[in-house]
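Appendix B. Raw example, untouched.
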Amino acid sequence: MALEPCVGKGSFPSAANNLGLGLIWVTNDLFPHPSVEPDTQFDIRQIRLETKPDFVITNPPFGSTNHLAKASLKHCLTICDRVAMILPKGARRMGFLDAQPEFAHLVSDVDIPDMTFELPGGEIRKVPTCLQAWVVTDKKRVKIGDSLDTRTDFVTWWSSGKSDFADKKGQAHFQVYRWGGQDMNKVRENLIQSGAWMSVRVVDPNVTVQEAINIVESIDVSDYFEKSTSRAAFDCPVWLDRVNQEAVRRGVLPALSK
C-alpha cells in the first residue's frame, strides 16, 4: 500500500500503474485538483491512516524557506518507514536533514530536472529539486551537527540581522556574506545590519584580525550551490567547522582530542 498525501493530478499513481508495480494507492490532497478526487483531504502534516502504509511517495508543498517540505517529510517519517519525496535542493542542508526523526536515515538523494511551480499570484517559478528516499530503522542516526567542530576559541559569530548585530560580547571585527554566487563567504569590515551577513569576532588574542580574515576567505563553500533552491547559503555551524579545521591545519587552533 502506498500513500500519496499530495496527489495533485495523480502523476505518481498513474506512473506506478503504467509500470505495473502493483501498488494499492491511498490518495490525499488538502486542495485537490479538479481532475482528481482523493480519498481524503487533510493537511499532509496531520494525515493519519488506520493501517500503516508500506510507502509514502509524494511531491509536497515546499513553502517559504522550505519549511513546509521539512515539516511534511518529518511527519511522514512518523507514519511510514519508507518515504520518497521530491524536495527542493535546500533539503540537502544540515538544518533540514538534522530536523528529521532520529531513527530515519537518508538512503538515496539524486538530482532531478528542475521543476516549475505556479504561485498563488499566477507567477511561474523554476525550482532546483532532488528526489530523496528515507527509511526508518531501529538504529539512531548520527546528526551532521553532532560531528562538527563548533568551538568558539578562535572566532565566534552571530546573526547580523539581529538588533545587536555589532555588539555581542564586544564589537564584531568583520562580517561574512552568507548568500549568493561568487560573493558567498566574502568578508567586509564595515559593519551593517543585514540578515544576509553574519558578524564575526576574533576571540583568540594571539591571532590578528587579518590572519583570521585570511583563514575565513580560504574556506570553500561552493558545495552549497547544490543545496539551495535559489541563491546558495551556507549553514553557519558548518561554516564554523570548516574555519576551525583550517585553523587547526595552520596551527592556530589545537586539534580536538579524541
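End of appendix B.
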